[in-house]
């Protein structure tokens, strides 16, 4: 089990997406997943070993690291990637349900089971709303947990068993901050794409509905 | 998800590229991504552990390392490769959109559609003309810009492409100006110069491809303006033959690349 699973999942979703949805998948692959695996993972690899406090008291470093990094940035990043990709599964399940129904009744119930209309449209819109919501939740979580998106070089720690206020130094703070900003930027881009897709779909189907009603009235 | 997945994504674009584009793709995968994964990552693997400062002051090493390497070479290269590969996706999306339109025409039973079945649409190779020409040319243009920006960023951040053996650091909490020693400076310099050289080759290939496309565009326009009715099929056949040959050559190169994975 690895990121390849997520990649295959998203490739499957790509089939039933709109154009903007496919751009979203491309952004997630290239700028989030690939950057995570190829670059970001290695920066945070030895964060605990390289976290150094100006004290010889055993246990002080451990306790201070745990206090300042309750959940590591890189783990939050991974969770965010997984959570944000998952709502797309709703669409895949719905299409599979439609195809199953057709097989069960042995007749063509839908013109094209993958076409975004009717119930599938609702599912698609719900998945978009969930994706956007989860992105915002994780961004807010990042902001609240780490007091903004800055990573300081030095943090002062006075938790037991540290005997007094001790200076602790975080490793590679600048590099981590650059990648954190990159994560925030790509998250915001994905939020914009999701909102764009949402507006596009709602507009398209409102116009379709309105035109249908208009034609009916004329008849 | 790794560089192998990128290879799969970009491999699809290869079919619709010019010959120079195919060479660029091969150079990208063999001389940049493969070298990065197989060699460069090992060289920079222990960079912070083996970065040693002549002081026992806790925290001084961390701070000095962070001061001299705001972003590691290896990460900058990985970002450069990702950004430089991304414009090719524009072409892939445009081709997919065209295929989708052709499939729609085919399904509607359009008389104008010349394909016998969907498989033929899937296998079709689109010529670089019309709107696809614009997409392709803009993708090359963006590639050039990204390459140049990253090369400049490298030069700016590290004051040239040499990795010094010794760096003097007096950032707090270092008690005074302290000597810090970088691990494997010569090996890192060699790889940096190698990566910069290959980057320059890629820039040259992109410029050549851009010139080739522009020349072809203007020639086509002047032919159309002149006498385009005389034997168009003849020229198309020759071009298709040349493209097929180029495809065979690059496919045999690609087959040697397919085996690798990180």
Automatic annotation (TrEMBL), chain A:
Gene3D superfamilies: Gap junction channel protein cysteine-rich domain. Residues 134-201 form the Connexin cysteine-rich domain. One of its GO terms (cellular component) is connexin complex. One of its GO terms (molecular function) is gap junction channel activity. Residues 42-75 form the Connexin N-terminal domain. Keywords: Cell junction, Cell membrane, Gap junction, Membrane, Transmembrane, Transmembrane helix. One of its GO terms (biological process) is cell-cell signaling. It is a multi-pass membrane protein. SMART domains: CNX, Connexin_CCC. It is found in: Cell junction, Gap junction; Cell membrane. It holds the Pfam family Connexin. Its main location: other. One gap junction consists of a cluster of closely packed pairs of transmembrane channels, the connexons, through which materials of low MW diffuse from one cell to a neighboring cell. A connexon is composed of a hexamer of connexins. PANTHER family: CONNEXIN (PTHR11984), GAP JUNCTION BETA-7 PROTEIN (PTHR11984:SF26). Belongs to the connexin family. This is Gap junction protein. The lineage of its organism: Eukaryota, Metazoa, Chordata, Craniata, Vertebrata.
Automatic annotation (TrEMBL), chain B:
It comes from the Eukaryota. GO terms for molecular function: gap junction channel activity. InterPro entries: Connexin, Connexin_CCC, Connexin_CS, Connexin_N, Connexin_N_sf. Residues 42-75 form the Connexin N-terminal domain. Keywords: Cell junction, Cell membrane, Gap junction, Hearing, Membrane, Transmembrane, Transmembrane helix. GO terms for cellular component: connexin complex. Residues 226-245 are annotated as: Disordered. It is found in: Cell junction, Gap junction; Cell membrane. Pfam families: Connexin (PF00029). The chain crosses the membrane at residues 23-40, 77-97, 132-158, 191-214. Residues 146-213 form the Connexin cysteine-rich domain. Residues 232-244 have a biased composition (Basic and acidic residues). GO terms for biological process: cell-cell signaling; gap junction-mediated intercellular transport; sensory perception of sound. It is a multi-pass membrane protein. Belongs to the connexin family. A connexon is composed of a hexamer of connexins. PANTHER family: CONNEXIN, GAP JUNCTION BETA-2 PROTEIN. One gap junction consists of a cluster of closely packed pairs of transmembrane channels, the connexons, through which materials of low MW diffuse from one cell to a neighboring cell. This is Gap junction protein. It comes from Sylvietta virens (Green crombec).
């Amino acid at each position: 089990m690895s990121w390849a699973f997520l990649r295959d999942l998203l490739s499957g979703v790509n089939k039933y997406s709109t154009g903007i949805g496919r751009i979203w998948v491309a952004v997630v692959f290239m700028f989030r997943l690939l950057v995570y695996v190829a670059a970001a993972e290695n920066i945070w690899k030895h964060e605990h070993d390289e976290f150094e406090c100006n004290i010889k008291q055993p246990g002080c470093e451990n306790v201070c690291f745990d206090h300042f990094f309750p959940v590591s940035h890189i783990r939050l990043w991974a969770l965010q990637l997984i959570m944000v990709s998952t709502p797309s599964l709703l669409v895949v399940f719905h299409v599979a349900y439609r195809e199953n129904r057709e097989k069960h009744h042995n007749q063509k119930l839908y013109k094209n089971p993958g076409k975004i209309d009717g119930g599938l449209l609702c599912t698609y819109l719900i998945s978009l709303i969930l994706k956007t919501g989860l992105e915002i939740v994780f961004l807010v979580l990042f902001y609240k947990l780490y007091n903004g998106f800055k990573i300081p070089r030095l943090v002062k720690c006075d938790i037991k068993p540290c005997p007094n206020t001790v200076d602790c130094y975080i490793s590679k703070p600048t590099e981590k901050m650059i990648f954190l900003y990159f994560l925030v930027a790509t998250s915001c881009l994905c939020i914009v794409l999701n909102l764009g897709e949402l507006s596009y779909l709602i507009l398209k189907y409102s116009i379709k509905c309105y035109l249908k009603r208009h034609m009916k009235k004329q008849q | 998800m790794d560089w192998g997945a990128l290879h799969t994504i970009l491999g699809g674009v290869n079919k619709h590229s010019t010959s120079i584009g195919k060479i660029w793709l091969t150079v990208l995968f063999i001389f940049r991504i493969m070298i990065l994964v197989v060699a460069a990552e090992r060289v920079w693997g222990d960079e912070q552990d083996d970065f040693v400062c002549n002081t026992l002051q806790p925290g001084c090493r961390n701070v000095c390392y962070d001061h001299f390497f705001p972003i590691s070479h290896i990460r900058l290269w990985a970002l450069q490769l990702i950004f430089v590969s991304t414009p090719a996706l524009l072409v892939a999306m445009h081709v997919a959109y065209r295929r989708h339109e052709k499939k729609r025409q085919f399904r509607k039973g359009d008389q104008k559609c010349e394909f016998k079945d969907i498989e033929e649409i899937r296998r079709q190779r689109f010529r670089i003309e019309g709107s696809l020409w614009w997409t392709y040319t803009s993708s090359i243009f963006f590639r050039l810009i990204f390459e140049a920006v990253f090369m400049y960023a490298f030069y700016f951040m590290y004051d040239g492409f040499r990795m010094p053996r010794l760096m003097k650091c007096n950032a707090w909490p270092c008690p005074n100006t302290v000597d810090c020693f970088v691990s494997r400076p010569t090996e890192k310099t060699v790889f940096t110069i190698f990566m910069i050289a290959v980057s320059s080759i890629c820039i040259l290939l992109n410029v050549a491809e851009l010139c080739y496309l522009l020349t072809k565009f203007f020639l086509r326009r002047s032919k159309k303006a002149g006498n385009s009715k005389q034997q168009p099929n003849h020229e198309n056949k020759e071009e298709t033959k040349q493209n097929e040959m180029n495809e065979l050559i690059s496919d045999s190169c690609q087959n040697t690349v397919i085996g690798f994975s990180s």
